Amino acid sequence: MAFPSKYKPAMCQQVKELMSEGMSRKATAVELGISYKTFLSYINRHEDFAAAVEQGDVLAEAWWEDKYIRGALGQAEVQPAMMIMYMKNRFKWRDKLEQTVIKDELETVDEWLAARDSEADSEDED
After folding, report:
1. 123 occurs within a structural domain
2. 97 alpha-carbon distance from chain centroid
3. Is residue 61 part of a domain?
4. Is 21 contained in some domain?
5. Structural domain that includes position 45
6. How many Å apart are CA 82 and CA 113, to the nearest integer?
7. pLDDT (tens digit, 9 = 90+) per residue, 71-87?
8. For 41-53, what is each residue's pLDDT tens digit?
9. What is the tally of structural domains in the chain?
10. What percent of the chain has pLDDT over 90?
């Protein structure tokens, strides 16, 4: 016999409120009084809950980003290395990678080999 679901539509608003304060999905599940496994099952079973969690993820990242900006401006006390690590691990932030294209079109291996062979042939003739 299955237990009745603890799910209530009002949980959607709670999710958004909790996550807008920077809480993770796991911490939000704890505050809702459910296991993380149940939290994930609600995402799969209830479209409104899934949408609330998706919005909550954005709100949580914005909360942490604001905290990081305030710390960088000296308006809040933060440990920069810890904040950077947190943002990279939780929100998949990454260092910017810059690439420079030197030539619009690169030679294929066959073209390179042909050019090398023709250079070698011209050297042999000299």
Report:
1. no
2. 16
3. yes
4. yes
5. 11-98
6. 50
7. 888 888 888 777 878 77
8. 999 999 999 999 9
9. 1
10. 45
